[in-house]
Amino acid sequence: MIRIANAQFWVHDQEEALAFYTRTLGWEVRSDVTMSEWGFRWLVVGPSGQQDVGLVLMSIPKPPMFDVSTSGQLAELVAKGAGGTLFLETDDCQASHDELRARGVEFNDPPTRQPYGIDTSFRDPSGNNIRLTQVLEFSPDRT
């Protein structure tokens, strides 16, 4: 069987991202390994209680991996929210919204009823989109 182990977000600053995901969202560190000979840090976080998947907080590559121009373009796209979206589910969107807002999360919109459930969104410090949804219309297994 093949399964998803990790997904990845580009981040502008790994320390800032680490603080946001652990202190603000309340997630835990799954892996934090620096490979100094490569100038690389493998940093993975994930929600407590969901051990089977993590989010890699990957620094935007600089030379020699990407040239300066490409690195800058990627940083700009991430800041604009074009780096991708993380979809989170919760049992109570309003309660989760209120809890995260009290921790300093700035939401783009209030929890709003949609055809599939109750939904809201926010961004991490790098600009990555995060949607928080209370699914109402689908079965939990989606089959």
UniProtKB/TrEMBL annotation:
Protein's recorded name: Glyoxalase
Ranges of residues in domain VOC: 3-135
Entry superkingdom: Bacteria
One Pfam family this sequence matches: Glyoxalase
Coiled-coil stretches: none
InterPro entries reported in the protein's UniProt record: Glyas_Bleomycin-R_OHBP_Dase, Glyas_Fos-R_dOase_dom, VOC_core
